[in-house]
Amino acid sequence: MAALDSKASGKMGMRAVVYYMTTTIIAVVIGIIIVIIIHPGKGTKENMHREGKIVQVTAADAFLDLIRNMFPPNLVEACFKQVNTRQLVIHL
């Protein structure tokens, strides 16, 4: 590539861009065709009953959980565990 002049280098670069765009378009078309054929998620139950209640989490709690999960005390345990903040409401 270093021995080529600028015209030949530009031609080779254009071929690389055209090749990349062509293969990307082919991959997208194949993906769309497969999705149309197999209809992923069609057989799932739409009215799933979920147990429990939705817990409201603030942005600060989510950010602190992220930082807490970044520095685990035990690396092996960190592969299998994730810490989440739990809020307890105490009525006095």
Write the H/E string, N to C: HHH
Class derived from helix and strand content: mainly alpha
Q: Which ranges are low-confidence, i.e. pLDDT below 50, for 5 or more consecutive residues?
A: none
Return Rg in Å: 26 Å
Structural commentary:
With 92 residues, this protein is mostly helical. The chain folds into two domains: 1-41; 53-92, no CATH class. It has three helices and no strands. It starts with 5 loop residues before the first helix and ends in a 14-residue tail after the last helix.
Key words describing this protein structure:
2 domains; mainly alpha; about 55% helix; flat; 3 helices; about 90 residues
Briefly say what this structure is.
The protein is built from 3 helices and no strands. It is mostly helical.
Provide the fold topology.
Layout: H1 6-38, H2 59-70, H3 75-78
